[in-house]
Amino acid sequence: TKSDSFLLDDLCFPQLNSSCRKIIRPPSLSMLIYITLSSISVVTVVLNLLVIISLCHFKKLHTPTNLLLLSLAVSDFFVGLLMVFQIILIDGCWFLGDLMCAVYFVLDYAVTAASIGTMVLISIDRYVAICYPLLYPTKVTQTRVKICVSVCWVACFLSHCLILKDNIEQPGRYNTCIGECVAVIEYYAGIADVFISFIGPVTVIAILYVRIFVVAVSQARAMRSHIKDVTLQGSVRITVKKSEVKAARTLGVVVVVFLICVCPYFCVTLSGDDAVVSASSAAFVMCLFYVNSCLNPLIYAFFYPWFRNCIRVITHSQLMSNVEML
C-alpha cells in the first residue's frame, strides 16, 4: 500500500526490517545543513592547503615556528576532509560499514587532538620567544620541534585507539539498528579524554598566555619610561616589543575561539555515565568543533604578511603558467 511504501522510504535500508530510520527534516532545512557543512569543509581544506603549500614550497619559511604552523595546517586539513563523513550522516544513515565507522571515529578524534596538541606547542614556542628571547635560538631548534610534533601525533593516535578500543575490537557492537554509526566511550575513558584533549591543553595555554601578557605589559611600561632616550638601538627594541604585544593578542584570540568551539562538545561528552557520541545527533557540537579548524589558518596565517605574499606568488605563478600554455 501507499502507507507501506512511505514507511520503506523512511528506512536507510528498505530491504531490511532492522534498518535504522532516516532523520526526516523539511527540505529547506536539509539543504541549509548540506550547504553549511559543505562550505565549512571546502573552506577548511582550501585555506589549510594554501598554508601547507606556502610553508613547504618557500625555504625561507622553514623555521621552528612555521614547522608548528605546518603541523597545525596538516591536522586541520584532514579535519576538513573528514567532514565529508559528517555530511554523509546528515540523514542519520551510514552506508560504509561498521569497520569504516570505527576507523572514522578514531581518525576524527586523533586528528582533532593533534590539532589541539599542536596549538599547545605553538603557545609554548611563543612563550619561550617572548619571555626568554636570548635562549630561544638555542632551545627551540628545528630538530627539537620535529621531535615534539612527531611525539604529539603518535601520542594522539595511540591514546585514542586505547580510548576507542571496544569500538575497534568489535565494530558496530553498540549499534541499535543497521545503518547506525556510533562510538561509545566509557565514563572513565571519557574523563581521561577530556583531560587530555581539553582541560590539560586549556590550562597550559591559559597559564602561558597570562605569563606572556604580564611580560608584554611590563615591557610596554619600561618602553614608555625610556621613551625620551630613544636611540637607534632603542627603536629596534620598540619594534620587537610591538611584535611581542601583537603575538600576545593573537594568542588571546586563539584561546577565546578555541574555548567557544570545543566547550560544547566536551560538555556533551560529560553529560552521561557512558558518553554516546552519535555523529548524526551531535551535528551541532561537531560542527563547532570543525569550525575551529577552519578558523585556525585565518588566525595563525592571515595575521602574518608572509602568508599574503606567498598567496600572491602562488597565484601569479599559476596564472603565468596558464598563459604560457595558451
Automatic annotation (TrEMBL):
It is a multi-pass membrane protein. It is found in: Cell membrane. The chain crosses the membrane at residues 31-55, 67-90, 102-124, 145-165, 194-218, 251-271, 283-307. It holds the Pfam family 7tm_1. One of its GO terms (molecular function) is trace-amine receptor activity. Its main location: membrane. Residues 47-300 form the G-protein coupled receptors family 1 profile domain. Keywords: Cell membrane, G-protein coupled receptor, Membrane, Receptor, Transducer, Transmembrane, Transmembrane helix. GO terms for cellular component: plasma membrane. The keyword Nucleotide-binding does not apply. It comes from the Eukaryota. Belongs to the G-protein coupled receptor 1 family. This is Trace amine-associated receptor 13c-like. It comes from Salarias fasciatus (Jewelled blenny). The lineage of its organism: Eukaryota, Metazoa, Chordata, Craniata, Vertebrata.
